[in-house]
Structure formats: C-alpha cells, structure tokens
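Standup notes
- DV: blocked on the single-chain target, sequence here:
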Amino acid sequence: KCQDICVKNLTFVYLYSEIETFMIVANQIREKIDAFQAGYVFTLSDFGLDASYDLALAKLLSRMTAAGEIKRVSKGKYYKPKQTVFGQLKPSYDELVKDFLEKDGEMIGYLSGPIAFSRMGLTTQISSNIIISKLYKKSKALSKAVLDEFVKSTG
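- DV (later): unblocked, structure below
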C-alpha cells in the first residue's frame, strides 16, 4: 500500500512539475511575442526553445491565432498585426519574403519584376505578384501563400 501511495504521489509531483514548466515556457513565449514589433514575421525557430517544447509552442501559437492576438501567414509563420484606425495591417513585402532573400546573413535572392521597378521609381504600377530571383538553385518548396512566381536567376 505504501509503495502504491508513494508511486502515485511521485507521479502527481512529476505531472505537476511538467505542467508548471509548460506554463513558465508559455509565459516566456508570450513575453517574447509582446516584444516583437508589429508586422514582424516570426517562426518557431525564433523562440530558440528545445525541440521538446515544439508541441507546446505550436499549441500556444494556435490558441493565440484563434484569439486574434497574432495572425498566421502560412504554415509555421506568424506575425503580430499592427492596429490602425482603419483596421489591422499586414506585414510588409520585405517581411513576408525575408526568408527567401537572405539566409545566415548571406543574400540568396532578390526582388524582381514590377515590385523592383516600382521601388526604383521606374513605374507606379503596384503588382500583387511577388517575383523573386534566386542566386542559387531552388532549395526548398516556396510557399504558395507568399510567392506567386519563381524565377531562376540567369547570372
């Protein structure tokens, strides 16, 4: 009997300790998201947590999305919307495509097409298509939610 009670108590203490740890991690995640600038696109890797917390992180981000605190851009990518008198603003083009333009501080692609011409002042046309030219071969599938076209660099 004593052994059963001791095992049950240890199990309870272990579960309570795990729940407490997840709650502390959840509070740290919320604080980090609050520290992000409005419009900043972030991923799971921006939190620097151990892989054992990935499920808790994904669940918390899902709950925050459902509550309207953050918005989902695509799978694994979220942003904190900026609130204006006209409603919520989406992130800039630069934020949406930053993972496709730079990796580890090295440029791997660049904006091209109508957006590039518009930024240089050569046209006033505003395109809904984002065209990215890559400096290297295509390394991963591009998100359809973010990119409409993929153009391989000839240089």
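- Follow-up: The first helix runs from residue 2 to 35.
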